């Protein structure tokens, strides 16, 4: 009977134990689990009765694990990690591909991907794809995204990382602006032309800003944190600017004025959690992204087009 009782142990009761051990507060544990405090208290009491041992001392300052609690809490914490892994793996279990795959990337890469959606749709037919433009990290363990493309690698993270390639940057200007200002085609551009630069606030392009600021004879006419703003301002003739070759070379309104600038190329990496790559559609899209970046390597780096 004792073995049968232990085998029938309720996972919901163990979740209360895990949450209570994390917060040392029954009310905080209840809030975390989305249940009432009386219900959390009943579940914890039921677990203690099944085990025949008191797991916490109820003190005015909160909960204090007993010796029995100290022995059980680490085991339950490992069970919670396993439950999270099951949740990540669950979408991979159905035989047919379905659902949504979320890809997080900075806006430059997101805009590039939006121009290559046919290849991504072909890699995972019937699956909805979400492109999430963001400079900030997402939590791949909690599946805030399934795949992430980013420049800097996270420290100490046990993720699967694949190198995709480099995105190159060069100087561009609107064709009609360049036609009116011959200095734009020479080194005199840094002293004689108006420029679009990068803001200090939320500095997403620090390398580009440092490179440009070190060359300009006067402050930029416009500063921004958003590369889409840079591209549109370039096309409107606001000034010259530094932009990613994979986007600016595609715009017939713009003219490239330099080769890819050495030191400004930004290496891109594909990150995913190992469990998520077991899902066929996530694996298929990861492979499609790697193939896409490989096929467009020279275009992305800016080597596929010569400066004017």
TrEMBL record:
**Residue limits of the HTH lysR-type domain?**
9-66
Q: Tell me a GO biological process for this protein.
A: DNA-templated transcription
User: Superkingdom, according to UniProt?
Assistant: Bacteria
Q: Which InterPro entries match?
A: LysR-type_TF_proteobact-type, LysR_HTH_N, LysR_subst-bd, WH-like_DNA-bd_sf, WH_DNA-bd_sf
Cite a single GO MF annotation: DNA-binding transcription factor activity
- Keyword line: DNA-binding, Transcription, Transcription regulation
Instruction: Give coiled-coil spans as residue ranges.
Output: none
- Quick check: keyword DNA-binding in the entry? yes
Give the record's family classification. Answer: Belongs to the LysR transcriptional regulatory family.
Q: Which PANTHER family match?
A: HTH-TYPE TRANSCRIPTIONAL REGULATOR, TRANSCRIPTIONAL REGULATORY PROTEIN
Official protein name in the record = LysR family transcriptional regulator
Taxonomy of the source species: Bacteria, Pseudomonadati, Pseudomonadota, Alphaproteobacteria, Rhodospirillales
């Amino acid at each position: 009977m004792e073995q049968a009782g232990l085998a029938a142990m309720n996972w919901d009761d163990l979740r209360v134990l895990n949450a209570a051990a994390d917060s040392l507060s029954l009310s905080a544990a209840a809030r975390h689990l989305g249940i009432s405090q009386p219900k959390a208290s009943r579940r914890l009491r039921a677990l203690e009765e099944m085990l025949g041992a008191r797991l916490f001392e109820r003190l005015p300052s909160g909960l204090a694990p007993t010796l029995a609690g100290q022995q059980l809490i680490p085991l339950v914490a490992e069970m919670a990690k396993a439950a999270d892994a099951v949740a990540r793996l669950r979408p991979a279990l159905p035989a047919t591909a379905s659902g949504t795959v979320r890809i997080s990337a900075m806006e430059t890469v997101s805009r590039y991907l939006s121009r290559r959606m046919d290849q991504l749709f072909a890699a995972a037919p019937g699956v909805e794809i979400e492109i999430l433009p963001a400079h900030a990290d997402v939590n791949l363990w909690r599946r805030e995204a399934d795949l992430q493309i980013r420049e800097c690698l996270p420290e100490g993270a046990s993720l699967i990382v694949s190198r995709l390639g480099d995105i190159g940057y060069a100087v561009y200007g609107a064709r009609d602006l360049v036609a009116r200002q011959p200095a734009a085609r020479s080194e005199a551009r840094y002293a004689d032309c108006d420029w679009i630069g990068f803001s200090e606030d939320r500095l997403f392009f620090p390398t580009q800003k440092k490179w440009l600021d070190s060359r300009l004879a006067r402050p930029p006419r416009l500063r921004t944190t958003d590369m889409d703003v840079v591209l549109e301002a370039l096309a409107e003739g606001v000034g010259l600017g530094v932009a990613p070759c994979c986007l600016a070379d595609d715009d017939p309104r713009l003219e490239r004025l330099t080769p890819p600038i050495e030191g400004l190329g930004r290496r891109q990496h594909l990150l995913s959690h190992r469990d998520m790559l077991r899902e066929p559609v996530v694996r298929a899209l990861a492979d499609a992204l790697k193939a896409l970046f490989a096929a467009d390597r020279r275009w992305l780096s800016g080597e596929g087009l010569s400066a004017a």
